[in-house]
Structures are given as structure tokens and as C-alpha cells.
Design a protein that fits this description.
heterodimer, A: 298 residues, Rossmann fold, 4-stranded antiparallel β-sheet, 9 helices, elongated, B: mainly alpha, Arc Repressor Mutant, subunit A, 2 domains, 3-stranded antiparallel β-sheet, 5 helices, 3 strands, 58% helix
């Protein structure tokens, strides 16, 4: 297997509105992938396409070399935790595990019970009375116990307090350490993903803005500051992602495959947070300026 | 055993931070040949980071010949980094201090001096990269 998720020009339209368009990605297997983007960027749509809950309007998507949701075998290979960790409020924790055992052929009941005990959850407690963090952990336990090769999580920590957030991500990483599971999770906050992801996909305005290994993204982006100059005079291998100027000074965020040698610049590393924000605002600005042009073409 | 720390938002990749911390511990003599590095599980439990990141750092260190993974046991230090010669350190500290004094008496302020240092530092190390 070479790709966790591979898409080719995949798009999904609701009515006349594209939720995701022209998305071409090859996410290598064995990764923890973060999908970041503002609300409405297409993160949930991409995850639901990968889970097989949606079918694309155009293009193709394969998950672990199979067609999402087309066979019981493919469904068993992928675990999906929807937004806000849904659970049946009136069903007990133990009831959830029994249901999981009924519905999933490879259910690992012993592991699920062990996890519940380690989390200190009372099996008789109804899911409706669990805290947000506990419910998220229950949902993760359900997803892990079906022993999938890939777990998809839609905004798993958005509604959790900082401590529950950290505990949840820790549990998730322990699963990765123990079972080598592929993971894709979404968040609109980079800070949530920075520690856990080794691959990042930035979505904005229904399109992929950036995708790559986190370590390579950090190594290839730099913040330059120095005397004011025209970004057009930079070497060809330096792409300007963001530029701001005062009358004397220029500050640029660039992508470059080589080191920056020009001594006029002060070069600083870029945090993942700043990097993602730069791509998002570039997408927004491009959208604003492109819109009238598109109308003329059509 | 060493404990890793993370500087979030530094712009330095997490795996690189781990590699640098092992280098530093070797240089300072905090880690010696035969010492074990924390397992990926231990680092995950402490820092809530991706285990792949820990393994990537350890692979880098292994490629440098500093550590070796023994299957089923863990990752161990096999070689140390040469500690900087204290006499050389003292000599360069003295010449740097003298240089700083002469720069100051020529009228340069701390910011000028730092800018010169940064530029010279980058020129010097960029040559090695380019």
C-alpha cells in the first residue's frame, strides 16, 4: 500500500455550491495527517468522502487503495468519528461496547474494556451524562476497537477544554504507537495539530492550498526582513507567500528549496501557525480579487 | 535517561528539536555510550506527540552513528560527540571579548554589533550549506 488517501480532481457540490473542488492529493500511508482550514473550507466533506459517507460529484478518491464505502471489507478498514463525538445519550458505556461488538466483525472487546477501565469510566453510566472529554474518549474507543487501518476524526477536540484536549490527543497517539494506525484528523486550530501531525493539508475556499510533510514545510519556509525591495527581484527558487512593506522595510514569507544567501535579509524560521495563516489569507485574497474576473469568463 | 522538552511555535520541526536535544546532552556529557533513550511510547506519554516523529529523530541519530536501535530493547547511545575543548573555548572567549571592546570604542552599539555578528555567522555557515 502506498497511499493512505489519494484523490484526483475530486469535487463535491451541494446544490450550486462547491464544498470541495479540484482536490488532488496523495497522502502517504503511515502518517498522522492534519486537515486545517477555516470553517466551511471543505474539511468535513473530504473526511466524509474518505469514509464513504458521501460520493464525489467529480473526480476519484481511493482510501488504502480501495473505493470508500463500497464493500463491508472496506468499511471495516476505516473508523470514522464524526464531529462532536456522537453517542447514544440513553445507552450506557457498556451498551455502546456491546453494540460495537454486534456491528463489527473484528471487534476487539477485551481492548475496548481495558481502555474504558484505564480511562476510569463507569461501564453502567449513560453516555448522555458523560463529560465532553469522556464522550470523546468513548467515541475514540469505539473507533479503535473495530481495529481499523485508518481512523478519520472530524474536529475531535474542538469542543474540549485544554486538559481534555491534551488527554484525548495523547490517547490517540498511544493508539498510533501501539497499532501503527493511519490517522487523519481535522481542526481549525493549528496549535491542536502541531504536535501530533507529521503531514499537513491546508484547505481554504474549498481548495487545497498546501500539503506536505510538516518537517519539510518548516524547513522550506522562511521569514525575511530587510530594506524595502520589490519581491519580483527575488531568485527564481523563492516563492513569495506573503509580503508586507513599510516605506523603508520589506517583510516576506517565502518558500524556497535552497538556503537564503542574500546578506541584506535577516532570515528567521516560521512557526507552523504563521505558515498556515499565510496560506489561508493568500487564498482569501485571491478569492476576493478573482471573483469579478471569473464572472466575465462565464 | 533524558527528558525531552518541546518549544512549540519555534518554527523548528519537532523531530529536529529532539535530535538537537540529544546532541546537546552528548556534548554536555549528560548522555554517554550505553545509555538508553526514552522509548517512543514514553515520549508519546509525556509530550503527546506523534510516535512517528520520535522514530524519525532516532533514525536521524542512527544515521549519524550516534545511537543504535536494538530490536525489542530500545535505542542506545553508541558514540558520543566530542566535547568542545575548554582551552579553545577560553581562547575564543578572550578574543571575542577583545573584539567587542574595540568595536565599542569605535562607537558601535549593541544592535550594530549583533547585526554584524548575525551576518558574519550566516556567511560563515551558509558557505558550508551552499
Amino acid at each position: 500500500m502506498n497511499a493512505m488517501i489519494a484523490t484526483s480532481a475530486v469535487g463535491k457540490k451541494y446544490g450550486r455550491q462547491w464544498a470541495l473542488r479540484d482536490c488532488t492529493l496523495t497522502i502517504p500511508a503511515g502518517k498522522v495527517v492534519g486537515l486545517v482550514g477555516p470553517n466551511g473550507a471543505g474539511k468535513t466533506t473530504l473526511l466524509q468522502l474518505a469514509a464513504g459517507l458521501l460520493t464525489p460529484t467529480s473526480g476519484t478518491i481511493t482510501v488504502l487503495d480501495g473505493q470508500p464505502g463500497t464493500s463491508p471489507a472496506q468499511l471495516a478498514r476505516v473508523g470514522f468519528v464524526a464531529q462532536d463525538a456522537p453517542a447514544y445519550a440513553r445507552l450506557s458505556v457498556a451498551g455502546h461496547l456491546r453494540m460495537g461488538a454486534w456491528l463489527n466483525p473484528d471487534w476487539d472487546g477485551a481492548q475496548a474494556e481495558h481502555r474504558i477501565a484505564r480511562l476510569g469510566l463507569d461501564p453502567r453510566q449513560r453516555a448522555g451524562s458523560l463529560s465532553g472529554g469522556q464522550r470523546a474518549q468513548l467515541a475514540l474507543t469505539m473507533a479503535v476497537a473495530k481495529r481499523p487501518e485508518l481512523i478519520l476524526l472530524d474536529e475531535p477536540v474542538a469542543s474540549l477544554d485544554p486538559l481534555a484536549r491534551r488527554e484525548f490527543l495523547q490517547s490517540l497517539m498511544e493508539v498510533v504507537a501501539e497499532q501503527g494506525t493511519n490517522v487523519a484528523l481535522s481542526s481549525h486550530l493549528v496549535a491542536d495539530l502541531e504536535r501530533v501531525c507529521d503531514y499537513l493539508v491546508v484547505l481554504a475556499a474549498s481548495r487545497v492550498q498546501l500539503a506536505g510533510e510538516v518537517s519539510e514545510l518548516l524547513a522550506s519556509h522562511h521569514r525575511l526582513s530587510g530594506p524595502r525591495r520589490d519581491p519580483g527581484t527575488l531568485p527564481a527558487n523563492q516563492e513569495v507567500i506573503e509580503a508586507s512593506h513599510t516605506d523603508r522595510q520589506s517583510t516576506l514569507l517565502i518558500r524556497s528549496d535552497g538556503p537564503v544567501l542574500d546578506p541584506a535579509w535577516t532570515v528567521r524560521p516560521v512557526s507552523l501557525d504563521d505558515l498556515v495563516l499565510a496560506y489561508m489569507s493568500r487564498a482569501r485574497d485571491a478569492g476576493n480579487s478573482r471573483r469579478p474576473g471569473l464572472e466575465v469568463v462565464r | 535517561m533524558i527528558e525531552f522538552q518541546l518549544d512549540a511555535g519555534s518554527g523548528v520541526a519537532t523531530y529536529l528539536q529532539l535530535v538537537q536535544q540529544v546532541h546537546q546532552a552528548l556534548q554536555l556529557g549528560l548522555l554517554k555510550p550505553g545509555d538508553q533513550l526514552p522509548t517512543a511510547q514514553q515520549v508519546v506519554a509525556r509530550l503527546a506527540i506523534n510516535p512517528n516523529t520520535v522514530l524519525k529523530a532516532y533514525r536521524d541519530l542512527e544515521r549519524e552513528g550516534l545511537v543504535r536501535a536494538r530490536p525489542g530493547q530500545g535505542t542506545f547511545v553508541v558514540r558520543t560527540l566530542p566535547r568542545t575543548d575548554p582551552a579553545a573555548q577560553a581562547r575564543f572567549l578572550a578574543s571575542m571579548t577583545e573584539w567587542l571592546r574595540s568595536a565599542r570604542s569605535a562607537g558601535l552599539g549593541p544592535d550594530d554589533i549583533e547585526a554584524i555578528y548575525r551576518t558574519a555567522f550566516r556567511d560563515c555557515f551558509a558557505e558550508g550549506v551552499a
